[in-house]
Amino acid sequence: MYEQTFPHKRYKLTYQFLEKHISKSESILDLGIENPFTKILKNNNYSVTNTKGEDLDLDTTNIENAEATVVTAFEIFEHLLSPFTVLKAIQADKLVISVPLKLWFSSAYRSKTDPWDRHYHEFEDWQLDWLLEKAGWKIIDRQKWTNPTKKIGIRPILRWFTPRYYIVYAEKIS
Question: Molecular function terms in GO for this entry (predicted)?
Fold first, then answer.
């Protein structure tokens, strides 16, 4: 077997977390359009389909009608106004979700050039846990990691030891 290479630390850690919990025989609905991480999953023999770019705050039809056994949402929920609605629409019994964590030393991300690339939510871990619980999900496993940069300054130093990403594996409560 060859050593898998990843363009980003978070891709490697996300893949390792997913591989720990999700079998390659399961079908995955990945929320959001196809992206570089989707391609990594497909190249590693996961069966993945994506939503079609619809506004998931307004249209959950593809989620409700999906026959996938697992739903993944990698850095998607922070862009939604109402992630609760999406969580309630999921028919699959398993969920893997990652979000950027709210950093006390940095304001929420907002692109200067793309009006759709902004974070409505940047969660604290307890907020995502509570959201999942309220929507009928039981957290089985969780992990956090940092996102260090090679820039100079106080905030880049803080990023070396302050967790930036939070990933959760949850199962639907019957």
Answer: methyltransferase activity
Q: How many angstroms separate the CA atoms of 123 and 153, rounded? A: 24
Set out the domains of the chain in order of their start, with CATH numbers: 9-172 (3.40.50.150)
Q: What is the DSSP string of 91-108?
A: -SSEEEEEEEBP-TTSPP
Rounded distance between C-alpha atoms, residue 47 and residue 26, angstroms: 7
**pLDDT mean across residues, the chain:** 86
Hunting for tokens 């967790």 — which residue is that? Answer: 163
pLDDT level of residue 1 (50, 70, 90 thresholds) = very low
- Residue 148: both structure tokens together: 């260090």
Tokens coding 141: 């496993």
Q: What's the pTM value of the predicted model, to 2 decimals?
A: 0.85
Contact assessment for residue 87 and residue 132, using Cβ atoms and an 8 Å cutoff: yes
Local confidence band at 161 (pLDDT 50, 70, 90 cut-offs):
low
CA distances from 61 to 55, 85, 88, 112, 144 (A): 11, 12, 12, 31, 31
How many whole angstroms separate alpha carbon 119 and alpha carbon 115? 11
